[in-house]
Every structure is written in C-alpha cells, then in structure tokens.
Request: fold
Amino acid sequence: MSGTASATGADGSARIEAAFAAARAGGRAALMPYMMGGFPDPEGSLKVAAAYADGGADLIELGVPFSDPLADGPVIHAAATAALEAGTDFEAVLEVCASVSDRLPVVLMAYTNMILGGAGPEDFGRRAAAAGAAGVIVPDLPFGEDEAVREMLAAAGLAVVPLIAPNTPVERRAEICEIAAGFVYVVSSVGTTGERGELPADLTDLVEDVRRRATVPVAVGFGIGTPAQASEVGEAADGVIIGSKLVRLIADGDGLAGGLEEVAGFLSEATAAMAGEGSPPVR
Amino acid sequence: MSQGEPEVAGRFGPYGGRYVPETLIPALDQLDQAWSEARVDPAFTGQLGQLRRDYIGRPTPLYLAGRLSERIGHRIYLKREDLAHTGAHKINNAIGQALLAERMGKPRVIAETGAGQHGVATATACALLDLECVVYMGSEDIRRQKPNVERMGLLGAEVVPVEAGARTLKEAVSAAIRDWVANVEGTHYVIGSVVGPAPFPALVRDLQRVIGDEARSQALEAEGSLPERVIACVGGGSNAIGTFTAFIPDEGVELIGVEAAGEGVETDRHGASLSAGRVSVLHGSLSAVIADQEGQILEAHSVSAGLDYPGVGPEHAWLRDTGRARYPSVTDVEAVNAFRELSRLEGIIPALESSHAIAWLLAEGATGQEGFDLVCLSGRGDKDLAEVLGLEDRA
Reply:
C-alpha cells in the first residue's frame, strides 16, 4: 500500500476544510460523492474513485462495506453485500483510498463494528491515516457514545465527522457542533440513505442553524439524487453529499464502463447546476 | 455495583450501549424516560398486573415433571411459560411494551420475529390495545413457521417478508430498525429480546423478570429451598434473563443458559454467540457476536428459528464474564431428540427453543445432590411440528 502516515488530527481537518474553501472560492458548494469501497469489485472500485476525482469531486466519501448497515437503504446495502461477496476487505478499501488521497481528501464511512469488531480503533485509525484518509464518519456512533473510540480515531490523525439529524434536539445540536472536526454531516431527512423525490421544506432552516453554530463547514447528505436537488441544497450548505444515486448508476450501468460514463455525466451536470445557482452564503 | 446490574446507564460492564444512527437517539431517550416513569406509576403497573393475571394467565404453574425427573434421576421443575397466552413467554414483554407505546402516544407498533412467537405476541397485544402492527419476518422463517404467520394475519398484523441475507431473524431485526429510523415519530419498536440499543435490554429484562420472580417463590413454596440449577435456552436471551434475574443474588444457585450449537460449535453452522463469538456490535449494542476477524457479522444456524441469531443480549455477555452464569450448548440433533422425549415423557410438546434446555439436562444428568432443578419451558412446540416431522422425512 502506498501513502505515508503523515497526517495528524488537525491535518485531516485542515485538508477537508481547505477543500470546502477551494470549492467556495470557485463559486459553489463542495461536491462530495459517496462510493462503496470494493463495489462492484475491488478493481472496479479503483476506477470509480478515479472517475469521481476526474469528474469534479472536491472530496470523496468512501464506504467500508459492512454486513449489517443499519443507516443505509437498499441500494447501498446491496452494494455492501456485493463488495463483500467480491472479496473486499478493509485492506482493499484502503487501497482505493490511497489511490486518490493525494488528489482530494477522502473521508471514510465506517460502521462501528468495522472499528471495534476488527483489530480495534487504534489499528483502524493508524491504517486509515497511512492510506491518506483525512476523516471518518461513523454513522452508528452517535455523539456521547463511546467517546474513547472518537478520541483514538482523532489521535490517529482523522477528522471524526459527527452527524446531526432533523430530530436532533437544539441543545444537542450545539454540543455536536462543538466537537465537530472536518465538517458537520447534516442528515437531510429521517430514514435510511436513498434517493427522495422531495427534500423536507425546513431543511434550509436546519442547515442555517447548524452553520451558525459550527466553526467547520456543513455538508448535507441522504436523499439527494438530482442536479437540481444538489443545486438547491448547495445554496444553503457548504457541501453536498450524493450517495445512492451514484451507487445505483454503477450498479445499473451497461457494464462498469457504461456505469462510469453515467457517473461522469451526472457529476458534470451536478457541478454545473451548483455553480449556476449561486454559491453558499459567506459566513 | 451488583452483578448483572448496569454499571452505568445502558451498560452491563463494557457491554450494551447505543450504537445507532443519530435519528434514533431522541426516541431512545424518550423510551428511557417513559419506562422510568411508567415502572413506578401505580396506574401503569396496576394495568400491567391485571393483564398479566386475567389476560396472559399468570402466574404460570411451576410443574414437578415426575417422569422426566425419574429419567434424569433428579427432581425437575418446569416453569410453564408454554401455558401463557399465545404459548410462550414473549407475551410478557409484548403486553408491557404495547402499553408503553400507548402511553407514549405512538399509534403504530413494529416488531421483528424469528420463530413467530414474538410476532404473534406483539400482534396480540396490538389487537388488544387497538394499535397498528407491522411484523418483519425473514422469508426462510415464514417458511419454517407457517402457523404463526397465519395467526398474525388473523390478529390483524401485517407480516412483511424480509429477503436480505439468510432471510432469518438477524435480517428481520435490521429491517425493523430501518423502519423505525424512517418512522420514528409515531412508531414504537417492540423489540423481542434483551438485545438492541439501551434501554431495550434492561426494559425487556424488567418485563420478563416476572418469570423468575414467580418461579423463585413457587420453588420456595414447593420445596422450602432454592433450586440447585436454573436452566433456560439462550438465543437473544429474554426467557433466560427473565428466569435468572430473581436468582442472581442467590449465590448458591447455578445459572445455566443453553445456546444452540446447530451442527456443532466447531463448524460454521451454529448460533452459540457466547461460546464462539467475538466482542462486536450488532443491532445497536456491544456484546458477544458471531463475526469474522474484520467485524463482519456471520450467519447463525439453528434448527430452532428463535435461536437462529448471531448475537445475544449484552447482560448475558456480562454474566458470562463475571462467571455468574455459564453457557453450554447443544446441537440440533440433541434438541430434536429432547423435543420428542419430553413429548412422550410428560405429554408436553416443547418449543424447539426450550428443547435445548431440556436437551442439556438430559445430557448432563443429575447433580448427585439432594436438591432440585428448575427449567424455563419458554414455549409450546405446536409451531415446530412441521419442521420436526420434515426433518424426520429427510432423515
């Protein structure tokens, strides 16, 4: 595996924040496409990462496949199952990370059991940092739960990105913003990951509230599946995360090459729409 | 801290916790609060007590099984949860949680089920309290437990087949949790065992401990002393925790939880999380889980759908670590033999789950002491007839 263990916690956060700042300087919110590591298979997954980097992504969210992903809807769940069936292990995901981490920040998305159930948080953090990962999102490690895990990941040099849901109480939002590193991940609507026809009407209010409280950028994910939605969310937020839509394009594409073509087309439309509709408000 | 009690809120030693998406945190806080209030509210406990007596049929008998005792050479008492309404201990939890859902103003209830007993119990409680009920069930379990599927339909519940993975209990729990994440505002998740994120393991234990509370006083009344061994089967572990809890302070009483060895714990087809699992997170809590070295959850196997689960309640992992309880296992073949043996010896057809507890006793035999044993017969076996007779046809 390539990559060097140079990152510190602050360094991971700084790299992520710099990517958001660069996108803003370019007149739009940052685009962070999600991909499932090892999907459709470890080799194909390297090509997906390259396509994201080539297609205008500012950061990449890289999923570590887990057998029982409770926060994910059917598309990403199926991709995780397929990745595992194709023989993907953590090492294979780290290879994907290392293949693009010198081009843009990579934020791992790993369920707690990939961190605790394997060799433990220190080992996970050390290997992730060595592969050039800038941060980690743990969707089933809510604020206040097992703080030692968060601390060990941060000590390894990773920005530990917390999530805020639409039903997170206001006081709790404030506490989460206080410990946030890299960025705050705002979940657009209750439910699992997956495309939604409509985003909640009060999403903008939530994003604005979190932006006021947080000192790091605020990105929105869950349910964003069209360039128009990306553009709409990008007017309020610092970053837009698109997952299931892109994973589905790969899954349903005419072979991997066909899927990659669809992905490139979508990313180009999304970045154009986000740039056209105005940039996120300056703080 | 006393053994078996959470060290800090939501934890049993290192086990337990709330490893769930942020969206569920407010609902778990609300549930924790609601249960803390309800359990000491005379209006709630009064209503629960009345339903236990008049509707579930509690206390269930403690029966001295004469011919089984003779066969083993030791007095054996069966705690007859098979005689509770709907035929298993699951109703104790379902009624309590459905009352809690009503109290929290949640009109919709969801549940998972493996053997179908918890689904039937939840559907029953929802019919009683006029709540909407949706039950997630793996399609393999739907095949194995057809009578219970039909029962749930009659009771007005919607049974949603789950096609993911091995199409058994693990996937049904995951599907129920995903439903809850999406519909958390008006929905309560009646989890069926002492698993899941806090406060579920403690809440379900509190509702199931009636088994051991009754059994302990019944034993004292019948024998004037406490049992030598208290034995129960363990899948998720709710009938075992329910039976053990009253006896945990009684240090002379040995607590034995019998896991499903399936085709053998040395094979990769078993359900013995405590014997052969690793410390991992499954369905929101840290416990003993059948998983690989990277933390991927593996498929469990047991002839009994209720024990076909790769995890176990976090309190059991703690009772194991502290040495207060021990957890042997018995194979599919031993369990099916016990199923047949108890039917013929006592005229009681046990659930395949409960047959594991009987099987351990048949294999282990007498203690050589003067005392007696107490076994939780957690459910009746009518639901398993097709499966057992099918096995005989295939043999």
Observations:
- Chain B has 16 helices and 15 strands.
- The radius of gyration of chain B is 19 Å.
